[in-house]
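Q: Structure tokens for this one, please.
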Amino acid sequence: MRTIGQHRDDLAALLAPVVAGLGAERWGIDELAGGGGSGAGGDGPARGHRVLAAAVVSPVPLPPFDNSQMDGFAVRAADAGQQVRVVAPIPAGVVPEPLEPATAAPIMTGARIPDGADAVFPVETTVPGAFPAALDLTRVTVPEDLTAGTFVRGAGSDLAAGAELAPAGTPLTPALLGALASAGVSTVQVVRPLRVLVVSTGSELQGADTTAATIGDANGIALRAALADVGADARIVRVADDLEAFDRALDHAVGDWADLVLTTGGISAGAYEVVRQALEPSGLAVTSVAMQPGGPQAFGSVVFGAGGGADRSVPVISFPGNPVSALVSFEVFLRPVLAAAVGLPADRPTQVLPASSSAVSPVGKHQVRRGRVQDGAVHFVGGPSSHLLVHYAAATHLVHVPVGVDTVEPGDPLTVWSLR
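A: Here is the predicted structure, written as tokens:
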């Protein structure tokens, strides 16, 4: 059996050229902020985690002009200690007249400092001490200790014009989107989302073109949601355990759209393992990893297109079919690679906590249990079986029992990953 580390490294190597070659789309910052709609270069809503595909240079200094840090009076520092005449107020959004010597202009936070002024003193130092009442003052005394630059936000103090606002690869956080807006940048180049075809196999699945007794496709929905959490765009195709139907469905669905094919089920030792039967001869490597759940795994580059002149080699990653196995496999093997590609931490928040109860783990395997953290200890949620999806949904953490630990006793330290 392979180790978890070996399999994770192989999947990272398989996906590295795909992630590096995704290309760029141009989007408006309004859409990237959550408005949805169509981008100038994209073909769908801008959702999920996105990163810049190219550096952005600020076309203006930030802030673009000297402005007041607070509500107060714009004055000349040379008039400190003197009583000066009050002139017309300066609200935000106007270009004020130059300030004459021995005068003070009431100024609001963010308003432009007038030419001639070089300092602001707060309205709280006057009587009545607040606007709008202080607008009725005809004269004010400039504080004796006022110096040039006091309460003035200088133009370019955040960023100079022509300086790099953000390099390529920067995640589009709310703060960055705000900085782009303040600089007047309306569109940016962003890395195109990874496009993943999620293939759920099994004649028992609803929507798999079968008349047999059916169950809902938990894997397709759960993995599509998990992929969206790391910025990937996913589509689902459900295929019965029929080799010819599988080949036909995948060639059609992959087309020129998919960057990655992610399958669930069909890679074990049964008689109807359609993924293994269809793709192993074409380059899919089926293997076993020393992990429970999620022991059966497969990966490789497979050519799709059925010789129709548009053949294309696409990476394929295959997880087991039981829903907990599929989700645990995603967390352990695939999520770290995709999260890092969109600027998210590759690793889930991790703690080492004592077990609240006893448990057993298979000899020679790394067991991943579901749990909750309460009162400083980790409590197992449900058993280790790979079909207990409702228990997984109730869990807040994945609990790791490493290779070589066959029995867990209360108080034993365990590594836990936070899922929420």
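A few notes: The radius of gyration is 31 Å. The chain has four domains: 24-61+159-191, 67-153, 195-341, 350-418.
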